[in-house]
Amino acid sequence: MQITIKNRLSDIALVQTALKQFADVRGISSHDVMKINLIVDELISNIVSYAFEDDGEHEIEIKVGLADNRLSMVITDDGVPFDPWAKDSPDIAAPLEARPLGGLGIHLVKKIADDFSYQRRAGKNVVTVVKRVNALDRN
Q: What is the pTM (predicted TM-score) of this model?
């Protein structure tokens, strides 16, 4: 599956709809779809909210594949360089008032995903996330 959206928060719903169709055809459980949607929401929200230094229209490309019950998602954008995995996870044991803002969503993605990576290629951020899923063998 491949979908390209604009840098609008409302476009996240387009990705989630396409992912639901992708998952339904492949028999991916609703529990796994919920986790995948959370990952998509967090990563794309961060891109839309923080990646671009101008107010112009930008494209975000999402490629999804499934092999051996491993769903892989590659999200590419032309925003400022940012490795979401480089920052340390927040101290979730600290009192709320002592925690700095931000970082909790990426921490959650790290906990849900089975593998993740970041590369900067040809002036673009390339974020890859892999999640094991229960799927039927319909490929």
A: 0.86
